[in-house]
Amino acid sequence: MKLFITRHGETDRNVQKRISGWTESELTERGLSQARDLAERLAADKEKNAIKHIYVSPLKRARDTAACIEKVLGIKAVPDGRIKEVFFGDFEDAHRVTDPAFCEMLNNPFVTFPHGESLVQAAHRAYGLIEHVRKTHAGDGNVLFVCHGMITVLMCTFFKDYSQTDLLNMRIENCQLLEFDL
Q1: Predicted confidence (pLDDT) per residue in 133-173, tens digit
Q2: In sequence order, which residues have a C-beta less than 8 Å from that of residue 20 and are 6 or more positions away?
Q3: Closest CA to 126 of 93, 87, 173
Q4: Which letter does DSSP use for residue 170 in this model?
């Protein structure tokens, strides 16, 4: 069984280099184009990928991306909060590049973002969905998650060990498609 994971299309906050977390943001025109292109690639590889189930973060940017995929694959996405982005608490809407306190928090995966959650807590909830999918859909086709950048980075640790440095340097591009054996 395969698990495919993709990040939503580009958003207004991505362009502004702002931290979104659970804060809603809109896909840009480029983001909509990325979502449509991903959907076309998935449609072209429909037989090979054999995706039978889609789970989507309930945040709008992920749902809008998934809507493009739902149309071409004919599969209704199931919203699941376990693959929402990391809740960055007080850092929501901060500038991600220039906020040294935010960068320091990323170096401490067990520390909770003020009024948010820790990276470990976010990974734990995402791992729960991965385990659920493994048990529920075994032998029932492959699964696609449509979600967010940091939660995708954390889900990668389910499948492979990473150093803290490697983890922090990992970049998940908008509408990048990752594939894992589950």
Answers
A1: 999 999 999 999 999 999 999 999 999 999 988 988 899 99
A2: 11, 13, 14, 61, 85, 92, 93, 148
A3: 87
A4: -
54 DSSP β-pair partners: 144
Tell me the C-alpha to C-alpha distance, in Å, between residue 50 and each of 2, 20, 143: 9, 32, 8
The type of residue at 179 is E
- How far apart are the C-alpha atoms of 35 and 120, rounded to whole Å? 29
Q: What is the pLDDT of residues 82-105, one digit of tens each?
A: 999 999 999 998 887 677 888 888
Q: How many CA atoms lie within 13 A of 83 on its CB side?
A: 32
Q: Which residues pair with 6 in a beta bridge?
A: 146, 177
Other C-beta atoms closer than 10 Å to the C-beta of 142 total 18
Alpha helices in the chain (DSSP H): 12-16, 29-44, 46-49, 60-73, 100-106, 119-136, 149-159, 164-169
Give the C-alpha separation, 129 to 82, whole Å. 6
The domain made up of 2-181 is a member of CATH 3.20.20.80: no
Kindly report the pTM of this predicted structure. Answer: 0.96
Phi-psi region of 51 (alpha: psi -120 to 50; beta: other; left: phi over 0): beta
Phi, psi of 78 (to 5 degrees): -100, 115
CA distance 35 to 43: 12
